[in-house]
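Researcher: If only I could read backbone structure tokens as easily as an amino acid sequence. Walk me, if you will, through where the backbone shape changes along the chain. I have put the entry right below:
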Amino acid sequence: MNDNEDARFASPMDSQPSSLQSKWLVHIEVRLKPESTARFDTIATFVRHHLEQDEQIYLPSCVGGWDSHPVLGQNVEFMKATESTCPHRVLRVEDAVLDVHVYQPSEADAFEELSSGGRGDGDDNVAATVCDLPNHSFEGLWDSLMYPDDIKPRLLNYIYATFLFSDANVNSNLVAWNRIVLLHGPPGTGKTSLCRALAQKLSIRLSLRYSHAKLVEVNAHSLFSRWFSESGKLVQKLFQGITEMVDDEDTFVVVLIDEVESLTSARASAVAGNEPSDAIRSVNALLTQLDKLKHYKNVLIMSTSNLSSAIDSAFIDRADVVQYVGLPPQDAIYWIISSCLSELMRTRIIKHVDIPDAKLAEDYSRTAAMKFDNPSKERERRTAVDLWLLAAKCKEMSGRSLRRLPVLAHARHIGMSALISDCGEPGLDVDLWLAAMKKIVDEEVTSRSTNLASDASKLPQKPTDVLGKAC
């Protein structure tokens, strides 16, 4: 077995090099063009030779220079150095073990549908949708998500651990794992997107292990029937179809149950007498099916919830990973807003300006008196400071809300006429865009405060307030 094959199942974020190799593992993702018919192993060999010609590799970074290669230039669409065991941003190539992942995402937007198999009369709902992975619609999703506490590498490490234990034939009666992940937190924090991005990432990383990969997104609301005793049967029928997929050992299956509380909270309500006993059967059926799937190596159950307190405790107990996904911190907000700005610059809606990372932007903001003689460098500094201060105002906003701000800023405070500069060149000056963003953020913050105050005014006054005045 060569070094690359050893690296396939190495922990993606281990902080120390291998004691045998004394080298750092670097994952290289290579996306092929839709029309490419080249063999993946051939492309991987050429990519490895191409990278070995350089002295250094930057982590993470897009890899260039391959377009002049006769084979790579004809077949490769994108190449990037992603996760690495190396804790540094720059690594000598001779100190790296290059694990090259070649993939060709599916261009099809059509999704296969799994029916809930009701009694008819309009009760035959779509219980789940299935799409092939890797999929073009999920490209770039992993990199667009920014979280604190190393949530993404933690999830990758968890997957690594399950494969390590399975391949070593660890007795699951002594060391138990269920391959279930629960992400919970407020709405708009990217929980569902993270599940899809992880499924895409795994389909690329495990392409040498599994020839096919599928994402099954379960519609939890469709698993309840108006017919008594039918809901449990609908759950069984759905998971029967999932089990048939998993029976193919060459296929890796990720099952995503979004808003899982809508399904698993039913049993607690039923015990309290608020729901019919059919709800208990449906939850029991789900738990039984999950217990059956844990014996398969090629399946992962991902679930999300906006209301974790409503989830059945038996489901939470089965989850190997229960991860809170909260609102983004200031550095993550800075990254989100700057990524929006970069996209608008790429499409020439805004004129180009260099954007430093969050760490440098924070340093600039602490030394406001510092200025550069170089005009372009000074413009970069001012932009970074303005973005950092803007991020500080957005601390109570979700990622979903943040990515809406540029559209609202253009609609309310810029307009179409401002997209053409005085000299007739396309592109808005970044200072005008930042001014519009500040206005829209102030409006959003004021609106949120007004709504909270309005909700608070509707609450009943405490009896002690009235009694106090009477006394």
